[in-house]
Amino acid sequence: MAKVVCVLYDDPVDGYPTSYARDDLPTVKDYPDGQTLPSPKAIDFKPGTLLGSVSGELGLRKYLESLGHELIVTSSKDGPDSELEKHLHDAEVIISQPFWPAYLTADRIARAPKLKLALTAGIGSDHVDLQAAIEHNVTVAEVTYSNSHSVAEHVVMMILALVRNYIPAYKWVIKGGWNIADCVERSYDLEGMHVGTVAAGRIGLRVMRMLKPFDVHLHYTDRQRLPLSVEEELNLTWHPTREELYSACDVITLNCPLHPETEHMINDKTLKLFKRGAYLINTARGKLCDRDAIVRALESGQLAGYAGDVWFPQPAPQDHPWRTMPYHGMTPHMSGTSLSAQARYAAGTREILECYFEGRPIRDEYLIVKGGALAGTGARSYSKGNATGGSEEAAKFKKIK
Ligand code: NAI
């Protein structure tokens, strides 16, 4: 029987919810490219409930225990005394969400001799040293598409929040003010701006589709070019390199995975290519950006705003400068874990586990690493190597009650 270790974020500080703001979730039938939604044989949770925190257990306990497997659920993931460390030696499956990533470094993978499956409940498996997974024949899988649209909605929200100066204006209301001039001295319309995405995969393309009615000029770069019909439909300007896109845009949104080709791609040198006063939205991964270069660009005015929900490491230590830098719209990593998204990726996690335990193939689009090589979505969207360096810093975070 297998030991399954599931690392989830903590319950709300005031306890696991007993009621919710809404009674149901809208039905989403399929994804635009024809990929079907997760299709496990059954689910043991109510869609719309909090599944991603420790007490939610991704709705997996009944299923796993009915098969005789052992399920360990914990939020304790960083540092040598963490619960995760205690179970490495005999864990066969480790489930983790990118919002609260269980960093599976080469060292940890080497100390997990029984590990067969690193399962990302969500999208983005950079918290696993993919090179080490390749070398140790560990399968890495994620629930592709489960929260891509959730993130795209967040990107559009953050673009509007920065360009229109929403957050400072909201703060004036809380302070009891009516300071219209303060609110609007940095407020613009998005209409007519040039908006570009680095990567036009599931999220990047969705963002562009949603922004089209704002009458903006849309730009993209990606290592795979979109079909001409899509470029024409959305009137897209294609840039063969990221650098060319940077200088053409007023707003740039990052939507590529973190891997050795993209780590720290936004740095002091590349920020110089941006138009002065550009806005940068990063809901992809914190380490796509050089942390301190972002702070410097906001302080100098090279960037007019930076927003996103991804940091490095996660959780971000209390002294992480992105918490206090000017003109930012940061949140904790939450865009892909709305209650709506949780229902999809919990079902997808169950589907992947059913395939694994029944010896059936995991869908190709869910695979990142398999059989000692990048596979499926991993082969299309990642490059070999490791992007977990520095993740031990996550142990510096102190919980706030
Ligand atoms: P996807 O696999 O559909 O798209 C990724 C795209 O990036 C592909 O089109 C690929 O060709 C492109 N790409 C990869 N390397 C590139 C490079 N060096 N230069 C240019 N383009 C490159 O994935 P999807 O669903 O769009 O997600 C993208 C990323 O967003 C995930 O890998 C993850 O890091 C992040 N994400 C964040 C979430 C959040 O909650 N904030 C939730 C879901 C995803």
Structure description:
This protein is α/β, with parallel strands linked by helices and 401 residues long. Helices cover 29% and strands 15% of the residues. The strands form two sheets. The protein has a seven-stranded mixed beta sheet. Strands 8-7-6-9-10-11-12 form a seven-stranded parallel beta sheet, sandwiched between helices. Strand 1 (3-7), helix 1 (61-66) and strand 2 form a beta-alpha-beta unit. Helix 5 crosses helix 8. It is globular, with a radius of gyration of 21 Å. The mean pLDDT is 97. The structure holds 1,4-dihydronicotinamide adenine dinucleotide (NAI). 1,4-dihydronicotinamide adenine dinucleotide binds at residues 122-124, 147-148, 151, 198-204, 221-224, 255-258, 261-262, 283-285, 309-310, 333, 335-336, 377, 381.
Alpha-beta content class:
alpha/beta
Number of strands: 14
Shape call? globular
Mean pLDDT reading: 97
State the order of secondary-structure elements, H for helix, E for strand: EHEHEHEHEHHHEHEHEHEHEHEEHEEH
- Tell me the span between the first and last alpha carbons: 37 Å
> Can you list the ligands bound to this structure?
1,4-dihydronicotinamide adenine dinucleotide
* SS field, number of helical segments: 14
Radius of gyration: 21 Å
Helix content: 25-40%
Strand content: 5-15%
What profile does the largest beta sheet have? 7 strands, mixed
Which stretches are low in confidence, meaning pLDDT under 50 for 5 or more residues running?
A: none
Secondary structure: elements and pairs:
Elements lengths: L2 E5 L53 H6 L3 E5 L8 H5 L5 E4 L9 H5 L6 E4 L9 H6 L3 E4 L5 H16 L2 H9 L5 H5 L9 E5 L3 H10 L5 E5 L6 H7 L1 E3 L3 H7 L2 E4 L13 H4 L6 E5 L8 H10 L2 E6 L19 E3 L8 H20 L8 E4 L2 E2 L1 H6 L20
Parallel strand pairs: 1-2, 1-3, 3-4, 4-5, 6-7, 6-9, 7-8, 9-10, 10-11, 11-12
Antiparallel strand pairs: 5-13, 13-14
Helix pairs in contact: 5-8
The protein binds 1,4-dihydronicotinamide adenine dinucleotide.
1,4-dihydronicotinamide adenine dinucleotide binds next to helix 5, helix 8 and helix 14.
